[in-house]
Amino acid sequence: MSAEFKPIREGKVRQVYDIGDSLVITVTDRISAFDNILENKIPDKGAVLTKMSAFWFDFTSDLVPNHLISISAADMPAFFQTEEFAGRSMKCKKLEMLPIECIVRGYITGSGWESYKENGTVCGIRLPQGLQESDKLPEPIYTPTTKADLGAHDEAITFEESVDILEKRYPGKGASYAASIRDCTIALYKKCADYARSKNIIIADTKFEFGLDENGTVVLGDEMLTPDSSRFWPLEGYRPGQGQPSFDKQFVRDWLKQNPDNGGVLADEVVQKTADKYKEAYELLTGTAFRL
User: Fold this and answer.
1) What is the pLDDT of residue 139?
2) Which helix (DSSP H) or strand (DSSP E) does residue 161 occupy?
3) Which of 92, 100, 218, 285 has a 20 to 30 A CA-CA distance from 269?
4) How far apart are CA 193 and CA 283, in angstroms?
5) pTM > 0.70
6) What are the pLDDT digits (tens) for 35-70?
7) What is the chain's alpha carbon radius of gyration, rounded to the nearest angstrom?
8) How crowded is residue 170: how many other Cβ atoms within 10 Å of its Cβ?
9) Helix count and strand count (H, E) for the chain
């Protein structure tokens, strides 16, 4: 590998390269579950996530500015114009990323459902009595978390705690930034969830990440509304009162729970079914066939 283009950051799935005035973010075919990177890779997953993020960035550009410049290899250095990076690279603006994961929940499921059964709340937010698993919430709720280092767990925080975290880093601006990313998160979710429903997909919940550009403007970064960062359910057959089939990696999580002695290694049919689910979600949402 050229010394000029070694990753400056590497996460569970993504690698970030500094190319001077901008960044190139590449998305691998790795998949993580329960904060661990699994041994298996999901074929074409990186390209699906890249193309899906690009679709959503364009769809929401009227609401919030985002960091995407291009997903065309022709706009990147020759190093990225190879099969290794084909279809899975984004040229992006440099941002100072904010230390908050912005999670929004439109339906009650997962850890939110477990918390609600215990005490009627989700991340400290009290919800109406009598909700069933997978019910649509009266209004989407914002449940931010910390942004943990690789291998560590994100921790749920209140909105007020997010203000404190941002205030320590940006004195005098914490409340403003916290309110901005909360409001952007809810607005993005509502627009995209309405659109997805028209394509027969329910977005149960998702996460966004934001950063600041050189002018201090809040900008949407990282990925957006992919099967890695969201719960996608088929609208057809949706029934509250039970778990739902999904287009996202919840399928992988469920399989791992049912096969705890497999050492975190997915069966071949699970790998293929996961790849198919990711592509199906992309095609339903964008209305275009997936191609590298």
Assistant:
1) 97
2) helix 159-169
3) 285
4) 16
5) yes
6) 788 989 999 999 999 999 999 999 999 999 999 999
7) 19
8) 17
9) 6, 16
pLDDT at 150: 54
Say which amino acid occupies 279: K
Q: How many residues does the chain have?
A: 292
* Distance from C-alpha of 237 to C-alpha of 221, rounded to nearest angstrom: 33
Report the distance separating Cα 256 and Cα 16, nearest Å. Answer: 29
Quick one: the chain helix, strand, coil %, rounded to 5?
35, 25, 40
Contacts with 71 (C-beta within 8 Å, 6 or more apart), sequence order: 50, 51, 54, 87, 89, 90, 91
Q: What's the pLDDT at 1?
A: 43
What is the CA angle 242-187-14, rounded to 5?
A: 75
Q: Are 207 and 105 in contact (CB under 8 A)?
A: no
Amino acid at 263: G
- Element containing residue 177 per DSSP (H, E): helix 174-198
Tell me which DSSP letter residue 86 carries: T
Q: What percent of the chain has pLDDT over 70?
A: 97
Tokens representing 54?
């690009």
Whole-angstrom distance, CA of residue 197 vs CA of residue 275: 22
Cα 27 from Cα 84, distance rounded (Å): 10
Longest pairwise C-alpha distance within the chain: 58
Sheet with 14-18: list strands edge to edge: 9-10, 14-18, 23-27, 89-92, 68-70
Which letter does DSSP use for residue 1 in this model?
A: -
